[in-house]
Amino acid sequence: MATFSYINKFLAFLVLSLLACSAHGQLTNKFYQKTCPKLETIVRSVMTQAIAKEARMGASILRLFFHDCFVNGCDAGILLDDTPTFTGEKSAGPNANSARGFEVIDAIKAQVEASCNATVSCADILALATRDGVNLLGGPTWNVPLGRRDARTASLSGANSNLPGPGSSLSTLISMFSTQGLTARDMTVLSGAHTIGQARCQFFRNRIFNENNINASFAGLRQQTCPQSGSDNTLAPIDVRSPNSFDNAYYVDLVNKQGLFHSDQELFNGGSQDNLITQYSTNAALFASDFAKAMVKLGNIKPLTGKNGEIRLNCKKVN
Length: 319
Hints:
By secondary structure, the chain is an all-alpha fold. The protein is 48% helix and 2% strand. Strands 1-2 form a two-stranded antiparallel sheet. The active site is at 67 (proton acceptor).
């Protein structure tokens, strides 16, 4: 009888534990397996079309995801439009006139709604689109934990204060990632996202004209299209070697003092991340593996789950 009593207590404990996990909203790879089985096929299809049209879109979606997750967690807050009574994250300094790719997320959402109405969150669509964008440009793939819900609000102040800028020091980068529960190694591997994408002249002008830890030929190349005054919005690839391929060339750039942003070169400038940068520059497989793991970790930052938030019908506005 004592044995049966013990077993019953154990089973009761197990049930309570599972209920507790459910209440806290564990994300799972199979969240929509029954409710929206075509989800990942739809996301992949739209992202394939978007990147065929413009390779840069992979970087744009990845940046959206990063900027979303660093402000109140991965809750699709960045996708909300301003209204007469609400100012969201789109107009924040790091996002204004630079955050892009919203129309791709809207296109995915429209097809997902047609397949399974009011079921899949915009936050999960953004997470899946990010993964596919990276992979379609030659990067790794990973299983995306799902089950996030969408925020009913956003934070302009959070977007202005939580996102590291292109002039950040190594200590600032480590600190800002640590605030989100990410390690210095996570920061360094996630910075490898700069292997794709473009940057505006105004954000790297000071580096190419005034800094010493920069390859002179590289500085000269960038100065050709980014003069000391004017041309603020002229674009240049962040990775000088293979700007449309998701690979480890970004780290080769850093080892050769060809980081475009001050914050990039800070990762390889006699500091704590030098050894890791050197490893990634010579070991593409290690970078790809670490990047995939860090992206799952990034996507797990404070998701809304269970009955928190909502499933937006239109990613631009609350229901």
